[in-house]
């Protein structure tokens, strides 16, 4: 009997989520009032890293001075800066192809988390990086606010060659790849999975809840209460159906995410309790969102994100001052540096 193997690429995820019916909260398409946004600087500053042609690149926040940071050739998914602006955590993708004795088999993608160093890139060495996770299941890293920890998704079934389905769990490790900790201690018995974590400075973990073999929506648990029942998580998820790729603002006041249903596709932000949502950007009918987490400017007043035509945009949190920095092309997964100053790659 043939096994049906899985491959959850970004494009497949977008198609999957786009096909789900909108059974969650009805999202009124309103923008954040200026009174709640605070003072927004006229021009964002800092550096934005991104993926181009499966390599890591970097540019100024206005799109200028684009330069390659690391020649990876298989970068895939969310990337994240260390708070000091000296390192970039990213995912590399591989694949396993196998044939069983009865000639069944298949191909599945595998992943691990790596880190690139900007001081190497600054002297022209774009071929230097380190592997942090070693289980061929790590992806979509995010650095903690203090720089001591990297949170990521780990597929517990990734190294099982003929696994018929993944088992996504949220994991943490130190910035050298050691001391890995699974946030759920009952993961062996779970039929519902958590993935794509983002962690606020207060320890609130927003993530995508996956069940029925589909990423369903977003939920939030505090690290101290991460063992709450899955049923209680599902109650949250049903209010945020079709929402994926969450990202906390630096001050923890807002949660950005991608919404990928037909009615309300785009980039949105929510209050931490997930009760109030505001639209930031909605693509034209001919364009789809990349289901990868938006990234906040260090002051929390701007967001950067990407669309499926290979373009990268910035926009302030009121949904104004939209600007396309790159594309159309092969650019995606932009990540804003958390540091006020970042070493240039050249």
Helices and strands in order, then pairings?
Elements: H1 10-18, H2 34-37, E1 47-52, E2 55-60, E3 67-70, E4 80-81, E5 87-99, E6 105-117, H3 118-122, E7 129-131, E8 138-143, E9 149-155, E10 168-174, E11 181-182, E12 193-199, E13 204-211, E14 214-222, H4 230-239, E15 243-248, E16 255-259, E17 266-270, E18 277-281, E19 295-296, E20 302-307, E21 311-316, E22 323-326, E23 331-336
Antiparallel strand pairs: 1-2, 1-23, 2-3, 4-5, 5-6, 6-7, 8-9, 9-10, 10-11, 12-13, 13-14, 15-16, 16-17, 17-18, 19-20, 20-21, 21-22
If you had to describe this structure to a student in words, what would you say it looks like?
The protein has 4 helices and 23 strands. The protein is mainly β and 346 residues long. It has one domain (10-336): TolB, C-terminal domain (Neuraminidase, 6 Propeller). The chain is globular. The model is unreliable at 1-26 (pLDDT under 50).
Give me some keywords for this one.
8% helix, Neuraminidase, 4-stranded antiparallel β-sheet, single chain, disordered N terminus, mainly beta, 346 residues
Write down the domain tally: 1
Structural class: mainly beta
Shape descriptor = globular
From the alpha carbons, calculate the radius of gyration and give it in angstroms.
Answer: 19 Å
The whole-number mean of residue pLDDT values reads 89
User: How many strands?
Assistant: 23
Largest beta-sheet details = 4 strands, antiparallel
Reported by name, the CATH topology is Neuraminidase
Number of discrete helical segments: 4
Question: CATH superfamily name?
Answer: TolB, C-terminal domain
Low-pLDDT parts are 1-26
CATH class assignment:
Mainly Beta
């Amino acid at each position: 009997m043939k096994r049906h193997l899985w491959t959850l690429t970004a494009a497949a995820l977008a198609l999957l989520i786009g096909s789900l019916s909108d059974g969650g909260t009805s999202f009124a398409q309103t923008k954040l009032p200026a009174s709640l946004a605070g003072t927004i600087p006229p021009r964002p500053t800092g550096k934005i890293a991104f993926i181009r042609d499966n390599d890591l690149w970097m540019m100024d926040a206005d799109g200028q001075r684009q330069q390659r940071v690391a020649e990876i050739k298989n970068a895939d998914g969310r990337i994240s800066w260390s708070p000091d602006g000296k390192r970039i955590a990213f995912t590399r993708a591989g694949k396993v192809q196998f044939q069983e004795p009865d000639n069944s088999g298949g191909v599945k993608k595998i992943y691990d988390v790596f880190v690139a160093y900007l001081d190497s890139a600054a002297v022209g060495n774009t071929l230097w990086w380190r592997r942090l996770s070693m289980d061929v299941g790590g992806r979509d890293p995010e650095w903690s606010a203090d720089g001591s920890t990297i949170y990521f998704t780990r597929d517990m079934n990734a190294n099982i060659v003929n696994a018929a389905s993944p088992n996504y769990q949220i994991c943490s490790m130190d910035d050298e790849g050691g001391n890995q900790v699974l946030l759920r201690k009952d993961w062996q018995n779970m039929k519902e999975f958590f993935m794509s974590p983002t962690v606020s400075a207060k320890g609130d973990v927003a993530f995508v809840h996956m069940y029925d073999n589909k990423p369903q929506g977003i939920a939030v648990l505090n690290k101290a209460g991460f063992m709450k029942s899955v049923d209680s998580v599902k109650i949250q998820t049903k209010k945020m159906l079709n929402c994926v790729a969450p990202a906390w603002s630096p001050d923890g006041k807002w949660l950005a995410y991608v919404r990928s249903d037909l009615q309300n596709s785009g980039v949105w932000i929510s209050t931490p309790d997930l009760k109030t949502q505001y639209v930031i950007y909605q693509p034209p009918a001919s364009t789809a969102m990349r289901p990868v987490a938006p990234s906040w400017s260090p002051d929390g007043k701007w967001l950067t994100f990407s669309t499926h035509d290979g373009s990268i945009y910035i926009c302030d949190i009121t949904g104004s001052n939209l600007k396309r920095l790159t594309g159309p092309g092969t650019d995606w997964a932009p990540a804003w540096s958390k540091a006020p100053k970042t070493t240039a790659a050249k």
